[in-house]
Amino acid sequence: MTPAEDNGPEPGGDDLFAAEYALGVLDADEREIASRRIDADAAFARLVDAWEARLSPMAAAYPETEPPIRVKEALDRRLFVAEPRAGLWSSLAFWRGLAAASVAALSIYIAVAYLKPPAEQPRLIASLAADGSDIRYLAVYDGARREIGLSHVAGERAAGKDFELWMIGGKDPPVSMGVIPAGQTARMIISPAVQDKLAQGAVLAVSVEPAGGSPTGQPTGPVVAAGDLKSI
Prior knowledge:
There is one protein chain. By secondary structure, the protein is of the alpha+beta class. The protein folds into 3 domains: 14-60, no CATH class; 69-114; 120-231, Immunoglobulin-like (Sandwich). The protein is built from 6 helices and 9 strands; from the N terminus they run αααααββββββαβββ. It has helices at residues 14-23, 28-40, 42-60, 69-80, 92-114, 192-198, and strands at 123-128, 136-142, 147-154, 161-168, 175-179, 185-189, 203-210, 223-228, 230-231. The strands form 2 sheets. It has a 5-stranded antiparallel sheet. It has a 4-stranded antiparallel sheet with strand order 5-4-7-8, with no helix packed on it. The two termini are 14 Å apart. The relative contact order is 0.13.
């Protein structure tokens, strides 16, 4: 999503914009716009805070991962191998540079632990929405764990109905990934056959189905949200 800086995001889009900021998937220009809005718009800042709190259990589900040894070796060379110069230890610039490098090292560690899963498996994200529908989900596909994490952004399912998640790859018929459990967040295990197609960047869609899911193996109700999977 690319909101207009002067007018803000489209009506009803602030919640998704705040969620994408909390997930860290905005590009540099969009992130700068969001940062300025956090400072100037208390309502938007509260949305970002709420999404950070809502998404934190998803991050907690992933164990810490040791960064590759090459990362530490590169940092060691950067920090400790340079030849000392006169007055180095009393140089304010040196200490500022060392502090900045330390922050960079911490950022690399966090990125490796939470954004780059083991064995270099893909991590993809999709914002699921549709014109004329108030149903919105955020989906994160974790290739290493063969699962999709879903955050329910907006909209309610009707009584006696379920939401079902589908994968659409090219011209192939939709493939059911299961009924979406009720709640603000959900995790769905993906079969190996579907995993291979998801890694290529398929479309995810949500349809309204009878309780328990589609009786035919294909969508029988309206598609109320959809979106492309994109790399994080």
